[in-house]
Every structure is written in structure tokens, then in C-alpha cells.
## 1
Amino acid sequence: MSDIPTIAEAARLIAAKKLSPVELTHACLDRVRELNGELHAFVLVTEERALADARAAEAAVMAGKAVGPLCGVPIGLKDIVDTKGITTTCHSRILRDNVPDTDATCAVKLAGAGSVLMGKTATHEFADGGPSFDLPWPPARNPWDTAHFTAGSSSGTGAGVAAGLILGGIGTDTGGSIRGPAALCGIAGIKPTYGLVSRAGVAPAAFTLDHIGPMAWTAEDCALMLQALAGPDPRDPASASRPIPDYTAQLGTGIKGMRIGVIRHFHEVDHEVSAATQRGIDGAIATFRGLGAEVSEVSLSPLAEWHACGTLISLTERAAAYDEWARTRLGDFGARVQQRLLLGAMVSGVDYVQAVRRRRELRAELKAAMAALDVVLTAAQPSEAPKIDEVPEWDIGQKPSFTMPFNVAGYPAMSICSGFGEGGLPVAIQLVGKPFQEATVFRVADAFEKATAFRDRRPALLSALVAAQ
Amino acid sequence: MPELDDATLDFLLVRAGVSPTYEQRAGLKAAYAHVAMMAERVRKPRGRMAEPVLTYGFAEEDLR
């Protein structure tokens, strides 16, 4: 076990009474005290709640009660997730004093699994825009180099997991907000199939593109978290009523004979990635072949087609969700969100519906392309993390996103670390499965992580801290 | 794509009920050209019978 356990390692030790949830929580709180001032991963640390949760978990273990793998595990919730009696700001001055009177369903499920709530993690304002310096809280910083961006919008969860402030956390993903921070922070994060995890009690970004999912150090940890999170919820009108499999059952069974399609034109033609990202992709393909998978090339509509479809839907649904505040409190939003809300309000109804019609065609295209495949692979981000003060103002004309296609399609998509590039910053690959086939994505991701050494390396600031303790 | 003229921008903003600053208006005029290009991308010859995607969930046919 490394100095900071994975969720799976902690679960085994806690169940065997070899690791105290209270001591584990204290260790995480110590790291929060040391590092959060630099990382800004949390907008609110709920220390009392964390220690109460940890003591309850420890009591359950010591009483010999059957506990699940999240019992006593410190986690964070992105601060767009409602928490009863705990401030939920959406990282916005509009809601800086907002204290919900109910928990989001994902918060209920994680609490019910015995996890320890460490606090609310930084996000971009209402999971949009960012990094912004005109909000009540600063943006999160990348633990691998704090001069660099985490990506967003689940930025605090990404930074917190990478730095060992938490072992896992909740992210949300409307166009890549789980997979982006997972990629740039060198961790694992999955956007599950649309409808698999309830959105109830989570601030919307774009209703039909929004997904809730886990972020953690490894694919196995994400599987353990998803096990607790997945399932139908009458509070979410899009919730899917599907059988929930054992997401860890296939881990370690190998990937010999599995069929992996590479959407090469996405990252080599449509949006050319950095040299290190390309090396990570090439290395992953070689690893998968070495493990016995069959790797082939697959072609889809150009990335810009998916991006246009998703962006029109996202802009418009977001503008609809925040229409009242855009009309009456526009100046209370940060500059980046103001710009997007204004632009979204100008999209015509016809353009929106054409985008939703295009979405059906694109989803059918992906389904056909994956018919003879188990997963597809492409980049998760174009490069290593840029410097945070060099992230350009939002530009709608920017190069298309690698993650948006799978929000458009609703398919499960995961980012995992595939190496390190310039300045030791992580790079990542994205693995995409068929609807409700998260277990297959985990199987492939887990095989890759265990065949490579990228999970053995933590950010230098953390190594220095652990050595000093 | 020609840049949005002031009269059209005014119409869109009044319809939306939003009141941007002068600087934001300039940004919107430039950005709207990209929205128009994206709208053009999703406007395909598909005929009147083509339905939107079922956004709230997958149909069984999607899962086969």
C-alpha cells in the first residue's frame, strides 16, 4: 500500500480492523490543512461532520456490522451537490449563503454507504466557465504544479483526489467536467451512461447532457463508488430503471480478445493533440495489444460535428435553466458565465431542435460504429494542463472537445492517466463503452492501470509532505 | 457569416429579456457568428419526419 491508500486498499484494511476510519480521516484533514491553502480544492471543509462520520464508521466496524467498501472512506462533494444543512454555493455569489434543506440523491447514497464527508469541493460557477478570478472563491490549482490549471468544472474534486485530501469524490459532467479534471490531475473519472446516476439535487448545467459520476485515484475505486451511486430514482425524471451489475466482478479477468476501436481522426486530424498525449495514446494501444486485445481503427463524423451539436444544446439548456437570474441578476454571475448565458439566450428554438435531431443521428452513428467493439479509445484532453493564468477567455470558436461527443451520445466514458508529459504533468486517454456497460470500461481501464506504473506516482508536493510527516 | 448587425442583436436581446453591457454586446456579435456556424452544421437534409433524439433515456432499440 502506498502512503495514501486507494479506496479498495482502505476498504480491505478497514474491514480487517487494520485501519481506523478516524485515523484515516485525521490524516486527510491534516493534508487539507497543509495543502488546501495552496490548492483551493475545497470551498468548505466540514471537519466536524467528517469526524462524526468517521466515528460512526469505526463504531460499525468494531461492532462487527457488515460494512461496504466505502465505509470510513473520506470523500468530497462538488459544491453544486445539495447537502442538507451545509452551504451549497455552486461557487457563485448568487448562492453564497444557500443552505439546502434536503440532500442530493448522490449525497444520500454515499452517506448511506458509510463514507466520510470531508467537505464541498471547488467548481466552476454553476459548473460552467472557469477558471474565474472574479468569484468569491479562487479556482482550484493543479497539485502536479500549482501554477497550472486543473480543467473543470469538477476541479476541486480532481485536485483533492490527486493530492490525497480525499480518496474519492463526486464530479459532474456536461461536456467533460469529470473527464477533463481527471485527465489533467492524473486520476480516474467516469461519466456514466445518461440516467444511471440520479441528478436529483444537483444544480443543472444542461438537463439532457448532465451526468453525475465518481472521481478517484483508480478505475477500481471509481467502480466501487459507482456501485453505491447507480440506480433508479423517482426524483430524477431521466433516471434509468436498469439492473445494476457488480462493477468490480470483471476486474482482473484480463482483456484478451476484447475489441478496442481507436477514433484516430479525433486526436490526429480533427484536433491534433500534444506530443506527450499522443505518446500516451500510442503507449496505451501497445499495452492493450500486449494484453491480448484486438485493436482496430474506427471512424465517426468529425469532432466538430459532435461539438456543434453539444454546444448548441448546452448553451440553450443552460440559458433556460438560469433564465430568471440572467434577466434579473446577470451582474451577480462571473464574467465567463454571463457571456455564456447571454449567448445561449440568443439561440433560436429551431436551432436547438435541429441540434437535438442531429443528436439522434450522431448517437445512431456511434452505435453502429461500436457494434463489433467493446470500447472505443481517443484522447481525453488535447495536452498537459496549461498554466492557469494562460487559459484563454472562453472562445466559442475554440477547437472541439474530445469529451463532448459522449455527452451528446449519453454513452459511458472514462478518463485514466496514461503517462506524464511536459514538466511531469499527467496525460490521459479516454475509454468509451456501450450504454450501461460501465463494467466493461472498468475492466479495460483497470487492466491498463495494473499493467503500467502510472498509479505509483503522486504529485511532488504530496510526496514532500508525506516524507515530512 | 456576416457579423450580426445592431438591430438584429437588439431584437435577439429584447426577445431574451437580457441586458448586456456595451462591452458584452461587442463580444456577443463576434461569438454569435460561431453559433450561426454551429447551427448550420446541425441543419442537415433529413426531411420532416426525422425525430429528435429521445433525450431522457435510451430506447430498447439503442441497447441492442
## 2
Amino acid sequence: MSIGYLLLEVRRATRSTRFLIFTVGFPVVLFLLYVAIFTKGDGAGVGELMISMTAFGALTGAMFAGGRVAAERALGWQRQLRLTPLSGGGYLAAKGLTSMMLAVPAVVLVPLIGGLFEGVSLDAGQWIRVVLGTWLAVIPFALIGLLIGQVGTPDSLQPIMSVTMMVMSLLGGIFIPISTMPAWLLDFAKVLPSYWLAQVGRGAVTSELAAGLGQTVLVLAGWTVVLGLVIVRRYRRDSARV
Amino acid sequence: MTSAGAAVRLSGLRKHYGDVRAVDGVDLVIAPGEVVALLGPNGAGKSTTVDMLLGLTRPDAGTVTVFGSSPQDAVTGGAIGAMLQGGALLDDATVGEVVGMVASLHRAPLPVAEALRRTGIEDLAKRRCNKLSGGQKQRVRFAVALVSDPDLLVLDEPTAAMDVQSRRDFWRAMHGYTDTGRTVLFATHYLEEAENYADRVVLMRDGRIVADGTVAEVTSLVSGRVVRAAIPGVTEASLRPLPGVSEVELRGDRATISSNDSDATLRALLATFPQAHDIEVAAVGLEGAFLSLTTDSTVSGAQR
């Protein structure tokens, strides 16, 4: 791992206006809008919306960074990096950490606005679970983004990314409240890591339909291990080619 | 020269892609301090050889050592700096950021400002990479290759996309580097660059080395001279039977005749075509040697 490389990656990513709009502005605006439309001073409803929008912002931020790998592969930048002492592991670690950094604005801003302006009131442990827990739970999404960047081309990246984000946030219970889902859809939602991502924060604001934290952590850890292995394999195959 | 102290040692190097023998048995030893030009037509195996030298491609057979260690170790130790064909720069980063980041990966890099100064781009440090001209990009790639302060520089077509002035500037910067006794291997299409800047020329064809030596040595492999003349009303068929002629090229009335015995050819030419005028006789240059060694299969027996 190289700090110099990590810093440049984060600087480059935050330079993109698209990034700032989608991962910082969008979840905040949606949160404020949804609260105004769907709740009538109902504290629990606001809490659930806050969790959903925190998860949504974190998910898009984390996935966005990994997608940039596609353009770098097409450019030959990975090839260039292989002529430096940066190892393959160092490269992937820096990419993953960058993705995690880009999830930070959403997990901080949305709960901050929820607590300060929308009257969400939680104890310290619950806030930590919402902010830190959601942030850590986004690790599988950083990896999904990276994997999409590894298999996508600059042309196909956009559609693959959009469809994945749509499926994750709509069917995983982030945009469609799980309380309104029919049983069969709820069963499907549990297959997606986004369901479990939202569950981390959900348990802090409501006990209704909340899964145990232990089970949630296990499922997300499972996703992390499997995705991590696939990415390393893919990277090895990619760099063995030429 | 003992191979143990060699900067680069390739032995029995082979790489096949399906039925294509991209590199088909290359042996090459480069001593520290040599500036070597790697020449050959497209598809001769230059880029594949360079990729194996850098550890980007694994050879099917044979070994590569760079300063006595594997290419990977040499890269990790910062001993190799390379400028790849169309090597990438990050569009959304500045020149200073890219060079600085690569410097931060190395253990004992040059100061970034020094690398930019040596490559003549200190005024571009704050410029985004997507706002650079082709020639400027090449110089940024040169700075990236140089910033680890390597002992061996490998350059694949370094001056492609450069105009005449930038090409001259590039080679001036390069001289500053080779004067300090570093080793350079460069592949190029510009034969005058090989003629002007290389101590040694290695000519590849069909995955093999067909000639290796100083420019004078390689040129001398191809005997003969070129006779040029304006001959009104001449045909190719009437020139071919003249003594010593190996090749004829006719453009309008201008004939270019390659000959193994230019004296005999010229006497016969003047006897047969008294109307011939504007006659020139010249030695075969590197370009002639290049064409002859890389296209005519009968000459390849003259290797080394």
C-alpha cells in the first residue's frame, strides 16, 4: 500500500462533479424530499428514511470509485503501474480504500441532517451503529464496484453500473420500504447485500423487521470474502495476459 | 564483456501467440552504459521482446536478467525506467501529481522538480494531463520513466507523435541522461535516430535478431552502392540485366539501382543509355541496410 497513491486516487475522485452531485448532494436532497412527502412528524418514519438514504449514498459512493478501474484498464494505466514497485495487492487495496473514503460524506452528512434538523433522536451507541456500522457494511459494495470496473469497458460500464445500483437500491429495500414488500419480494431482497446494508442501521432506529446484528455481520462478511476472492483472481488473470 | 556484469541479458527468449512466433530465439547482452537501438519492421517482435524484458509478459522459453536479477525485482528496486508505446497518463490528474505519485512509490526517486526540469516540462507541472499535446505527453511519460533515477531506460517508440523540434529537445534531454553512464534500449522507426544516438544497433525480423553491431558494422553487412540517374525512356526490364544490379526502382525517368558492383553497373549504364544524366552514386546507409536485411531473405545469412 502506498499513501501517495491513495491520496492521488481520492483527490482525483473528488474532482469529479458527477461524484459530488450523486454521492453527496443526491442522498441529502432525497432525504429532505422524502421526509417532506411521506412523514407527518412521525419520528420512526424519519429514522427509517434516514437509514435508507445513508445506505443509498454510501452504496453509490463506494461503487462509483471502483468503476473508474475500467477506464484505467482501457488506458493502459495498470500496465504503467506494473512498472513501478506498487504491487497488485497494493493497487487493489488502494482502490478499495478509496471507495471506502468516498462513502464517508453520505454516512456523515445524512445522519447529521437527520439529527440536527429532522428530529431523529438516538443514543450514542445507536448513532455509532448508524454511522460507523453503515460505513463498514458498505465494504461489499466497494468490492462490487471494483469488480464491475474489472469486467466492464468504458462503454459498457455506465449501463452495468446503473442496473446494479438500481437492483440493489430498489429490490434491496432501500427505496421500497421492506414493510410494504410482499413476502416473495422480501425473500428475494434477502439475497442482496443491500438488504443487509440497510439492516445495520435499521436495527438502531426500529425493531420492526430488523434482523439480528450478528446475522447481518455474518452475511456481509460472507459477501466480502467471496467478492474479494473473485477480484484477486480476476486481477491475476488480467495481469497475466498480454 | 562478461554476462555477469551485464545490464541486460536475454538468452534463448521465445514467445509464441498461437501459431505466430512473435519472438523466436533471441540472445542479447547489453553492457552497462550502452545506448542500443532496437530496429525492425512492424511485427518483427520488438514490442514483445521489450515486454518480456520489463516482466510484463512471461516468455515461453528462455531467461531474462536485468543487472543480474529478474525483471520484476529490477522494477521493484527502481533499476528500470520504461516509456511504453502509448503509455497511459491519468486525464484528471496534473503532470506534477502523476510524476509525484510515481516518485512516491519508489525508494530513492529524483526530486519531482528535478525530473520535470530534466525533461523540460517544469512549466507544465500544474497542467491536467488531458490538456497536453502529443509531444508534451511523451515528455511527461519520459519524466515518469526517469523519476525513479533508473540505471536502465527502456523506450518503445519514444518520439512517435513528436514534431521535429520536440524530437530534438527530447534527444537533448536524453543525452543529459546517457552522459552519466546509464544504459538505454530504445525501439524506433526513425532510422536517423538510431544513426545519431545509438552506440549499437540491433535489427530484428520475424522474431529473431538479424544484425547486431555499430551502425558502420551493420551497414557494412550489406555490400554495394546505390546508383541514381535520370534516364529518359528507360524501362525496368532493360535495367535489370546490367552487371551487378540487385534491385531497380523506377519513378518516371528517375531510376534507383542497387548494385553489388557499382563501377561495372555505371559503365554498362552509360554505354547502354548515353542519354542518362544527373547521376549519383551513394553508399547504402542504415536505411538501405535496414530494408535489405529485413526484407530480402538471402541476406539474413550474413547475421553477426
